[in-house]
Amino acid sequence: MPKLKPKQKRQSFLDKIIVIAAIAEPLCMLPQIIGIFRYKNASGISIFTWIGFDLLTMIWIWYAIVNKQKMVLLYQSLFCIFDTLLIVGAIVYGGTWI
Questions:
Q1: Is the pTM of this model over 0.85?
Q2: What angle do CA 68, 70, 72 make, to 5 degrees?
Q3: What's the CA gap between 51 and 83, in Å, rounded?
Q4: Residue 96's beta-bridge partner residues?
Q5: Which residue among 5, 45, 66, 74 sits deepest, i.e. has the most Cβ atoms within 10 Å of its Cβ?
Q6: Residue 57 and residue 81: Cα distance in Å, rounded?
Q7: How confident is the model at residue 4 (pLDDT cuts 50, 70, 90)?
Q8: Is residue 46 within 8 Å of 96, Cβ to Cβ?
Q9: Where are the alpha helices (DSSP H) in the chain?
Q10: How far, rounded to the nearest angstrom, does the alpha carbon of residue 64 sit from its chain's CA centroid?
Q11: Chain-centre distance of CA 17, in angstroms?
């Protein structure tokens, strides 16, 4: 196996960090989602705002597919799943449309 140059080592390290970030950042939404479903209360959650986030996330997913960007696809797919869960909870448990 060829020895990595310092720049390649940094890039390899950054690639590992970005995978962690791509998974961890969307997971930060879980407490909000769990709270909505556990307490059956979505007051203060703007459904319109989260639908906007979800629609924009779908554009990123499209971009990632077209440009074969695996990290963007992973990151945005997780956001899309969690955004959708939050929207469903907000609709069911009294989120506002404003």
A1: no
A2: 100
A3: 8
A4: 46
A5: 45
A6: 10
A7: low
A8: yes
A9: 6-27, 30-39, 47-66, 70-92
A10: 14
A11: 16
Instruction: Average the pLDDT over 89-93 and give the result.
Output: 97
CA proximity to 65, closest of 76, 56, 52: 76
CA distance 85 to 87: 5
Beta-carbon contacts of 67 under 8 Å, excluding residues fewer than 6 positions away, are: none
Q: Is 96 helix (H, G, I), strand (E, B) or coil?
A: strand
pLDDT digits (tens, 9 = 90+) for 30-47: 999 999 999 999 999 999
Nearest to 33 by CA among 21, 24, 42, 23: 42
Classify 4 as helix, strand or coil: coil
Task: For tokens 């009294």, name the residue.
Answer: 94
Residue type, 33: I
Which residue do the tokens 């705002």 mark?
Answer: 49
Tell me which residue of 77, 69, 68, 63 sits closest to 23, measured CA to CA: 77
